[in-house]
Specification:
The protein has about 130 residues and is of the alpha/beta class. It contains three helices and seven strands; from the N terminus they run βαββββααββ.
Length: about 130
């Protein structure tokens, strides 16, 4: 068995599939489809393999980023998210990383990035492509 040819994919849990469908489809504007497996969602983004979202009634959100969206401009992405009612989550990254700027964007110490959460508390990010 070899993993190099495996069509690997990512997945994460949510407690409410309908809320996830609305957030990812309507708020973020992603192509969200019902999976061939009943009760699951597929998020179709810029790759050949969808991201699987599955229900877990006792879901506890991870304490790390589960999904990153590379974008050309984090500022534009944050403005668009804010206009849709999505607020950035501020993390204290210590003396060097701080808590981000007025928009909640961290700059100059690694990639330009901003974090936000889905309705289940899963951590997502927009980060500047190529930074």
């Amino acid at each position: 068995m070899t993993f190099t040819d495996s069509p690997a994919f990512s997945s994460f849990a949510v407690p409410d599939i309908d809320a996830a469908r609305t957030f990812y489809g309507q708020t973020l504007g992603l192509d969200v489809r019902d999976s061939s497996e009943e009760g699951l969602l597929e998020l179709h983004v810029g790759g050949p393999t969808p991201i699987l979202v599955y229900p877990k009634p006792d879901h506890q959100p991870a304490v790390f980023t589960v999904l990153n969206f590379p974008v050309q401009s984090v500022d534009a992405a944050v403005d668009e998210l804010n206009a849709k009612g999505v607020e950035m989550t501020r993390y204290d990254l210590g003396e060097e990383g701080g808590r981000g700027d007025a928009k909640g964007i961290h700059r100059g110490n690694g990639p330009t990035i901003a974090w936000f959460t889905d309705p289940a508390g899963n951590i997502l990010s927009v980060l500047e492509a190529g930074s």
